[in-house]
Design brief:
It is a single chain. Strand 4, helix 5 and strand 5 form a beta-alpha-beta unit. The protein is α/β, with parallel strands linked by helices. Helices cover 36% and strands 18% of the residues. The chain is globular.
Length: 248
């Protein structure tokens, strides 16, 4: 199940979105998600751990049919206030998605795996309900910002105390251990601590810069490969009975 955001967490997160610096960072993260996922208008997406809906908004802007799921009722209440009827919202857990196989074109994690107990199971569920691609946006453990966030948790209680930070290589290995040798593409953003300014934005959006594995936010997209599972059928051999035993 992992950590479920309570009322205070939801309010603090919503308050942080009012800061222009945080919004600039989220805009860069959302643009990275769109660039890697490459969705087409009209396709369906499941946003796993949708929170307040901040990661759903750029998907809706692309003309996608979006469904969000989150274990926190408080976060879903905020998402409902923001999105209205634009997206279908459900309460549930990443490790046990209440949807049929291949129900969506894509599935997305937007800083969700950091708070689940069983990331392998969550990824397995995402690959089960999606049929095209899975996007994973996560906090990079090798980024300077990530180190700073973990150090802050030593001196005061923050949400990052409850989060697990990942590296690009760690998640690639986790995905392939579960899904096999599927195509994987990754990028990072927020190489700098300040995402404001035109020059900074142009720097962060450079494809060359995004190939640096040390950005604070990393995005990884998995292209799913169809698999066919066959179930062996048991066939019993019954020898024909002869009328009389053979004798020498």
């Amino acid at each position: 199940m992992g950590y479920v955001f309570n009322f205070q967490d939801a309010q603090a997160y919503a308050q942080s979105l009012l800061d222009h610096r945080n919004r600039s960072m989220i805009d860069l993260e959302s643009q990275l998600m769109i660039n890697l996922l490459k969705p087409c208008p009209g396709e369906s997406v499941l946003d796993i751990g949708c929170g307040t809906g901040i990661s759903i908004e750029p998907l809706l802007a692309r003309g996608l049919n979006v469904t969000g799921i989150d274990p926190s009722q408080y976060m879903l209440d905020l998402a409902s206030e923001t999105l209205g009827q634009k997206a279908d919202l459900y309460r549930g857990f990443a490790e046990d998605l209440p949807f049929d196989d291949n129900s969506f074109n894509h599935a997305t994690f937007f800083t969700t795996l950091e708070f689940v107990d069983d990331p392998a199971k969550a990824l397995e569920e995402a690959c089960r309900v999606a049929k095209d691609r899975v996007f994973i946006g996560f906090l990079n453990c090798y980024a300077l910002k990530g180190i700073q966030r973990r150090l802050q948790g030593i001196f005061k209680s923050t949400l990052f105390n409850k989060a697990r930070f990942y590296s690009v290589w760690e998640l690639k290995a986790l995905v392939r251990s579960m899904a096999g040798k599927v195509p994987i593409e990754w990028r990072t953003v927020l190489q700098l601590t300040n995402a404001k300014g035109k020059l900074t934005q142009a720097f962060e959006q450079s494809e060359f810069v995004q190939r640096c594995p040390f950005g604070a936010f990393a995005g990884l997209v998995v292209t799913l490969v169809p698999r066919f599972r066959t179930r062996p059928m048991t066939m019993r051999y019954r020898p024909k009975k002869t009328k009389s035993p053979l004798t020498c």
